[in-house]
Amino acid sequence: MMTTGEEISWTNARAVLRDIGMPHLDWAHGVAVNIVRQCQNTRHRPTYHQQTFLEAESPALLAYLEKLASSGDSVGWRTLRDRVQVHADTLRDSDMQPCRRPWLAAIWHALPELAAIGQSILDKPSKPKSVADFEVMPGSADAGSASGNGGDEKGSAGKTGSAGTVAKPKPSARLKLPIVAFILTEAEKKALGLDKPASDADARDEVTPDDPDETNRISGPEMSGGFK
Fold first, then answer.
1. What's the pLDDT tens digit per position in 186-200?
2. Residue 22 lies in a domain
3. Is 179 helix (H, G, I), strand (E, B) or coil?
4. What SS3 state is found at 103?
């Protein structure tokens, strides 16, 4: 049973899709557009049912919005506005059929980019891993082996697909966004914390050799999801 907040969210989602001239889309697209709009207006992260929705449908988009909210200044939110504005200008200058709420339409067109940026945030390690993170406790391998086959040398109880071991299939996401390439502005890199190397090794990789003509020059890591 849905809560009152969820019912209002789905009602607003249907209105959003109608206003941008895309009532044929899954209502999840309307929910995502409305969440981005509200976060931009309030400069706060998604909460309650909005957070629950994005956790299930687009963790990458949730990571992007949470990162903006945690930046603590208005610069990050301005980068969101500027990215949406690019799509708004494109829609205005194109021959596409105008809609009732062009800014919401621009947010919908920006969703794949926002999710791609959010995925790059998720892919970036929060801190370098130490050797201890990869250490295996003595006897853990033997214990795992015994639990996997029930102590039987033939491993009859550990066969894949045996009764009680099949995982339930995960429901397909309703918010299906295409994977797109993107280029971050300097303001976005700073606001999202993507301007710093993830580890000391990355920092060493970004050092430019003293000889500008050196053939075996070390290059910095490429942004995940960006242009090669």
1. 999 999 999 876 554
2. yes
3. coil
4. helix
CB-side neighbour CA atoms (13 Å) of 187: 12
Phi (first) and psi of residue 122, to 5 degrees: -65, -35
User: Within its chain, how far is the Cα of 57 from the centroid?
Assistant: 10
Q: Is residue 167 in some structural domain? A: no
Question: The tokens of 172 are what?
Answer: 């397909």
Q: Which domain holds residue 74?
A: 2-124+177-190
Q: Assess whether pLDDT exceeds 90 at residue 180.
A: yes
State percent of the chain over pLDDT 70.
65
pTM as predicted: 0.70
Is 118 part of a structural domain of the chain? Answer: yes
Q: pLDDT grade, residue 169 (50/70/90)? A: low
Q: Considering just the CA atoms, what is the radius of gyration of the chain in Å?
A: 23
Nearest in space to 190 (alpha carbons), one of 86, 106, 68, 88: 68
- What average pLDDT score do residues 106-131 get? 86
**Count of domains observed in the chain:** 1
- Residue 27 domain-assigned? yes
